[in-house]
Design goal:
Distance between the termini: 20 Å
Structural class: mainly alpha
Helix content: 55-70%
Largest sheet: 3 strands, antiparallel
Radius of gyration: 17 Å
Shape: globular
Number of helices: 6
């Protein structure tokens, strides 16, 4: 496994440990953050925002609804569409999620000065852009299937 694979694996493992006390998985925390930033949206809109297929987040949404993190309400303009929104419980956890995210970032950048952090961010952005460059322009229109 290459260094990027190792970093990805280790950061996912660390994030799982950090979110465990809140009974959340990192992806579920990401869903809550997106809803807090963008507001109420449909499952399809959320999937597009996260670059996933709607079916791939269905299970997460169902679990989060049962845990009272998300509520689904009919769209007032189209009763076939359900709008996802945060609950009071999830709003209360948002500060914890932000703190866990800050701790993860602190751990990732431990021992680096500001210049090194900026350089790493620039280099990783370049790696991402290099990978996207070789793909069709609509790469982000083809969601990842989990």
């Amino acid at each position: 496994m290459g260094i990027l694979g190792q970093i990805s694996h280790l950061s996912e493992y660390y994030a799982k440990q950090m979110f465990e006390p809140y009974d959340l998985k990192p992806g579920q925390a990401g869903i809550l953050v997106v809803l807090s930033l963008d507001g109420e949206m449909s499952q399809r809109e959320l999937a597009e925002r996260l670059n996933l297929t709607p079916p791939s987040i269905t299970a997460a949404i169902q679990k989060m609804e049962k845990m009272d993190y998300i509520k689904r309400t009919p769209d007032p303009h189209d009763q076939r569409v359900l709008r996802l929104s945060l609950t009071e419980k999830s709003r209360a956890y948002l500060e914890h999620i932000k703190e866990v995210s800050r701790q993860i970032e602190e751990r990732i950048y431990k021992g680096m000065n500001t210049e090194e952090k900026l350089l790493l961010r620039r280099l990783l952005t370049q790696v991402r852009d290099n990978l996207v460059e070789g793909r069709s322009p609509d790469i982000w229109k083809h969601p990842i299937k989990l």
